[in-house]
Amino acid sequence: MNAPLLSVTDLKKHFAVRGSRGAAAGFVRAVDGVSFEIARGETLSLVGESGCGKSTVGRAVLRLSDITAGEIVLDGRRIDDLSASAFRPLRRRMQVVFQDPFSSLNPRLRIKATLAEPIRNFGLARTAAQIEEKISELLDTVRLPRDAAKRFPHEFSGGQRQRIGIARALAAKPDLIICDEAVSALDVSVKAQIVNLLQDLQKELGLALLFISHDLAIVEHMTHRVAVMYLGKIVETAKKREIFASPKHPYTFALLSAVPVPEPGNMRTRIVLKGDVPSPINPPQGCRFNTRCPYAFDRCRSEEPALRDLGEGQWAACHLHDLPEAENPLSGGGHAV
Amino acid sequence: MSVVSDLASAPLAETPAIGAPKLPDILAPVKPHGRVVGFCLRHPTIVIGGGILVIMILIAVLAPYLGTVDPTTLAPSKRTREPSALFWFGSDMLGRDIYSRVLFGTRVSLLVGFSVAFLASFIGLAIGLSAGFLRAADGVVMRVMDGLMSIPPILLAIALMALTRGSVGNVITAITIAEVPRVSRLVRGVVLSLREQPFIDGAVAAGTRVPMIILRHVVPNTLAPLTVQATYICASAMITEAILSFLGVGTPPIIPSWGNIMAEGRALWQVKFYIVLFPAIFLSLTVLAVNLLGDGLRDALDPRLAKKL
To answer: What is the pTM of this model?
Structure first.
């Protein structure tokens, strides 16, 4: 494979927690050693339950927040240690679409002012006429009427605003768009339109997408690869087909078993996880998932498993794969349980 | 010829026209009002408050042409006259025409109210923005503001006036200093919540620099709550000015202001109540107007804020 467009190595983001006396009482290990790569034109989905750190990864990659440790390389160039002014021109290559279509547009700016901002900042057009032209093209690209440019955000519906958000991201002509729960706030039919729009754009423009989501049905529909996060770590990563057909981590299995099946009577084996996610301030010893894992054994409570190659581009961090084949509940197909 | 072609060639006009059924009146479409009328109907407080305020501004500007005499002319022989054709609002214990004094007093009150509202908003915006954006400045600046807020504004204004000579300019300065902390707090709060908004992150990702982020994305979004706050500051500044004058530490007695007139009438208030009455009516009416305007603006500009308050 060619050099990846974006490669993140051992990314950590810790937030200091203040105790009652204002002294640092510990750290929330929101992201604790995450590594992944995205190739050009590829969609990588980052999935996991609320609070597992997936949005924090997105913000860190965009440098909207500082990182604690790790390395982010964009197209062969390390970007996490660049100064703000050296990084600004590189921002063009990574854009973002947010979850909430209502707060992601400045309510006081007309659409054309919002869209003109990246065009002007990155010097993609000089004259007012050129900028106008670009804005019209962008609105065509996201299938909005051209006269939308003259309006304010409150005149649009949620789905239309999300299109405007996508147009703003496209205005910079990026290589990578980070979709932070970009369709989670939309209702089903609009969600489908936006997902299809993103897929079309990816094909037309060769965009890479980092698709942060908790909606596995959508992820299955549009992704190439999936990375599953649990408590600040990636527990499994694989191509779409492998992960949906034969998950190799019990957590992935539990997530997949929670996806509704659209055929009545066609039940799948479910793993219902008990209890809450442990606190990221004080994560459990050993495997982070051991407190909720139905298959946890002694080794899981003492030794933290590393991601290991299980073939076919599938990597999982689970001690079960060290067991003999017969004792491993996750070996073979996903329906072993 | 087939039946089909017969039907097809039949003239359309022969089909009986299906007219729209007559709707009862209650279902008839509502005729929308024009923009101006509609706005007035939806926001009566803005219209009433704004209307009274416009009248007050006209009075202040046109004071010399509204049948007034020089408000400082003494007429010792015509002291404490009841309201009459000669002295519409009566005369005070030095024989000065209260009608003229009240009308000219409008100038002082409005000047103080508007100046303080503008200055306090502007300075408060600057302080609030820097506190909201510079982590280092935040702690220090806001503790100073907390300190200022712990002193009652009138006490603070009196203390500041005690340091200087009484003049309208000094009154404005003193009240502004007393009002700035409230505005700074408001702006800082709005800035802190705006900073977390995704559209700010979007602008950062779009390569916008911090000064432009403040100018384009933050300041315009603070203007609605700031305008509302400015009206309340305007009202409270007018009252504070009257209180300072009443206590004799504000506007110098030579300049007629509502507070001064009331202070002078205080001793005679049980026998010659009209000396205090008329400036009091004007002051109450103006403050009421400004507050009504503020309430209306709050409802019109920021419906969410209206629910919270």
So the answer is: 0.81
